[in-house]
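Re: your question about protein-glutamate methylesterase

S., sorry for the slow reply, the queue was backed up all week. Below is exactly what I fed in.
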Amino acid sequence: MSIKKLGPDNKLLERWHDAQIVLFGGSAGSFKILFRIIKDLPEKLGKTVILIIHRKKNFFSEIEKLFAENSRMYMREIEDKDILKTNTMYIAPANYHTLIEDGGYFSLDVSEPVWYSKPSIDVTFESAAEVYGNKCAAILLSGANQDGAGGMLKLRESGALTIAQEPADAEMPEMPRSAINLGAADYILTQDEIFKLLLS
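Result:
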């Protein structure tokens, strides 16, 4: 399957509407686009949304509070054994890896960082591929390392819809470019094209 730029593509829209789980992975340079996403997504999206964002180890962050105060969808930080619920947005906590388990619940893992990151986007993407496969859509945004590329490839191989932000459109292009170079992305979209899809 070749990588496509977004045009009038009914197949893309069909796969987006069929997805039950939506995963967003981001690191350096992804805050602005993620903030816009959480503000714009409707309260009754009909999907479960999961955000995996790199944050500095042991660095207190107000990001969860800021996102929750501006989200139209109910939002919470993931706790161990939380059940995945529709029309809920979850954010992976700092200093843990977040896995999705068979049975539709989260588990938190304290093993070593992956790509110097905990939470690791790869870890969550790979677990989602194993449990939900083609029921997933995953979008990999700006970032300064290769985390997320391998996990996105697993998702694509499982039948999930995989989208990388256009590197030229990203503040830090390394993360989406790594996914594209690995052949992990079905589509390469700019920020505006991503928003157009999410609100379609």
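Residues 123 and 193 are 27 Å apart (CA to CA). DSSP finds seven helices and ten strands in the chain.

Happy to talk it through on Thursday.
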